[in-house]
Structures are given as C-alpha cells and as structure tokens.
Amino acid sequence: MRNDVDCILFDRDEIAACVAAIGRAIADDLDALAGHPTEIVLVPILTGSMVFVADLIRHLPQKLRIGVMSVSSYPGRSIESKGALIRGSLPDDLAGKHVLIVDDILDTGQTLLLVRQIVEEHRPAEVRTCVLLRKARPGAAAVHVDYVGFDIPDAFVVGYGLDYNDYYRNLPDLVTLRPEAMR
Ligand code: 5GP
Ligand code: MG
Questions:
Q1: What total of structural domains would you count in the chain?
Q2: Given the CA of residue 81, which atom of ligand 1 is nearest to it?
Q3: Is residue 128 within 8 Å of 146, Cβ to Cβ?
Q4: Which one in 5, 47, 93, 144 has a CA-CA gap of 20 to 30 Å to 172?
C-alpha cells in the first residue's frame, strides 16, 4: 500500500496539530455562546470523516452527541461524482440544538449543502460546518464552511479516513496516489 503513495500532503503530526487547532476553535466558539447551553450534536458524514471525527471529539470538552449521515457520492470504481445516496440516523430532537456537520473534504460542495438541508428541516438553533480539507474548486469556494483544516489544490487525496475504492482509509497521512494505483 505504501508503494502506491505518490506524495505526502500532510503527515500524521501536521494533521494532529491541525485537528487540535480546529477543536480549540470550536470549543472556544461554543463557550462564547453566553447564556446558551453549549451542548452540541455532531453530524459526521461517513465513511470518510470517521477518523477525523474520532480525533476531533477528543478535543471537545462540551457535552455532545453524534448522529451520523452517510452520503455516497462516488459509487463503484469511479472517482467522478455521481448522484447522491443518503442514509442517516439523526437524533429526533434536533429542534433548538446546536449542530455541527463534519465532513472529510469539500470538493463540489454538494454533499455539505445536501446534509445541511436535511439537518435544517429539523429546526435546530444553529448549524455550523467543519471540513478537514477544502479543494481549490469553484464549487467549494462558493459554499460557506465555518471550520476548515487545510486548503489544498485540486488533487485526489486518500488516507486518514479518505478512500479510493474503499481502500487506503487506514493510511495515517494524507497523500496522493501514483497514477498506476488508480487504474
Ligand atoms: P462534494 O459533494 O463536495 O463534491 O464531495 C465531497 C465528498 O466527495 C467527500 O465527502 C468525499 O467523500 C468525496 N471526495 C471528494 N474529493 C475527494 C478526494 O480527493 N478524495 C477522496 N477520497 N474523496 C473525495
Ligand atoms: Mg464523504
């Protein structure tokens, strides 16, 4: 698997520092919501954000719950975005709650917009969004995201939870693959 790696974009230490900084920013913002309960509901978009969210929640001292959503935007062997298939198990009492949607990477922005729409139907007090990676793409630039880890060029990235054909999620670093590995 290591032989398939073309370039390491961010190694595990850089990722850890970045995730800690995002966690601090989120925790500080929640503390600043004076007079409001600072309990939050995290909505991770699976499967890509699994590793990120596992690390992130350990930087959040607030009371929190998790309700996962799953959006498949890259079915089969393709790395091109197709239609979206959505499944989820949101808590049924989101009304009036603070919700933080967490995804691995912002590409066209469609996934985040879609999940945000679904969450907003439950009338939460507030919805914030967080992505570890944001690609330099016109779609991504048009979508507001409250917390962004790294801005990256328009390349296909795997590792730290992100996959190619469901492989490479277990790589501890964020990397690009050699073209031979993507055939
Ligand atoms: P969007 O809806 O913003 O176009 O795409 C977001 C989703 O597409 C992410 O949650 C992720 O699952 C997938 N995706 C987009 N770009 C990449 C990438 O470079 N690598 C991987 N592994 N998945 C990606
Ligand atoms: Mg995803």
A1: 1
A2: 4
A3: yes
A4: 144
Residue positions annotated with a catalytic role: 107
Nearest 10 degrees: Cα torsion 63, 67, 72, 73: -50
| Residue bearing tokens 């498949």 | 72
CA angle (179 as vertex; 159, 164 as ends), nearest 5: 35
For ligand 1, atom 15, the nearest C-alpha belongs to 107
pTM of the model: 0.93
Tens digits of residue pLDDT in 49-92? 999 999 999 999 999 999 999 987 555 444 444 566 788 888 88
pLDDT in tens, 93-130: 999 999 999 999 999 999 999 999 999 999 999 999 99
Residue 159 in contact with ligand 1 by CB distance below 6 A: no
Chain centroid to Cα 30, Å, comes to 19
Q: Is the Cβ atom of 104 under 6 angstroms away from ligand 1?
A: yes
Scanning 57-179, the segments in alpha helix (DSSP H) are: 110-120, 138-142
| CA pair distance 141, 174, nearest whole angstrom | 21
Domain of residue 94, residue span: 2-182
Using the Cα atoms of residue 29, residue 51, residue 136 and residue 42 in order, give the sign of their dihedral: negative
Residue 167 is classified by DSSP as B
Q: Is 157 in the pocket of ligand 1 (CB under 6 A)?
A: yes
